[in-house]
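User: Quick one: structure for sequence A, then sequence B.

Assistant: Sequence A:
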Amino acid sequence: MSEDLFKGVEQKEFELSNHQKLVLPLFYFDNTSLIATFTASTNKVQNFLPHPEMRLIELFPGRCLITFMAFEYRKTDIAPYNEFAIVMPISFRKAQIPVVTIGSQILRRSLSCYIWHLPVTTEIARIGGVEVYGYPKFIADIDFHREPGRVRCVLAEKGKNILSLSGNVLTTELGKRQEYITYSIKDGTPLRTEVLVNPIEFSQSINRDAAELEIGTEHPISQELKSIGLGEKPILYQYCPVGESILFEPQNM
């Protein structure tokens, strides 16, 4: 753990509607993440955006990006839990230019995205995400499986498989800090939230066989994913077996 990430960040207590309490910003002290980015049909994904000022970021005209992010949070301010994010990289209130916009965000290490689906494994993570951040959270089964050279995360709800994401175990080094700007909708209002990430052990690969996504058949989210023209293989895979992060309070846009 790097104490520098959390040093000087003041936290305050927040009470949820079920009388559970948490502190904001939320600290995540020990995490693992698997992240894979795919292309998809811009026209088809556009139908799922909830706000007219959200603009999908395209790799090239007609093909936007969809990112799948599996998280294992081993030590946090709200106890251990797992999470799976399905996000759409976007530009908010700004025009996007294929290649240029995503390239600029990568260079600045500041990526912006709309949170499409965000299942979690504990109730405090669900209700906190919904009430504070407007995130589309629900309780699901999110299980990590490790075998020699490979890590796999399986996402399911009520016995119905949604998807599984697997990736190679890569040789890692200390990564550079990065921020994610997430957008969500709460009571019809867009919220902007900063997430600061410190990847202590990190690697990435453009080998299109480094990660694999398998989509289920019965769950509604699976059916959505099958409808958007996802590419068969990822364009980027990121592996972070040890990391830490801060989830800051949302801003009303």
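Sequence B:
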Amino acid sequence: MLALISATLAKLAQEIALLQRTEIGELEEGYAPGRGGSSTMPQKRNPITCEAIIGASRVVRQMVPAMLDAMLHDNERATGPWHVEWLSLPETAILTHGIVVQTGRLLDGLVVRPERMGANLKLTRGLISSEAVMMALAPALGRQRAHDVVYDASMRAIERGTLLVDELLAEPEVTTHLERAAIERILDPSSYVGLAGQFVDRVLGRAG
């Protein structure tokens, strides 16, 4: 259980660290002067809390094989397995506690940049929402044909560096059923989030 908890929190920390990269910049650990800097590169803000969580979690997960091995003992466990437990259990508990504490601090100070999220979504020029267009066309064209039409338009958009909406408008099978305004609305990523909002509200409700 401790390994599962530590791995879950490490996954969260890893995602934050990856999204803090300069070229993405959607999230960032809370900053304080002198924190997370580099001895050689003054401009850096390293995700040091994320790194600590990820590193400690790796150690915790390595304790799992040791504890499983300690299950194989003789009679009254006189030949060593319990010594493995003495080493593994305390360290696992201490490290997992540290991971939980550090994750709380990480989330309390987390910087979220929705404007960068929006900008990054636009990098694909609409391609990220191609599935939404396919599903909108499926009732009229059939799912497979809708897939093929949107696929062809998407490949042209990639090769030409054009907007997906423009390539879709060049397809008569699309314009017969969808106008530009409708396509642009469908291609808006915020209109295709499914039940994500409800799930977030549910989790936050339980946490509260």
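The chain has a mean pLDDT of 92. The domain at 2-114 is CATH 1.20.200.10 (Fumarase C; Chain A, domain 2).

User: Thanks, that's what I needed.
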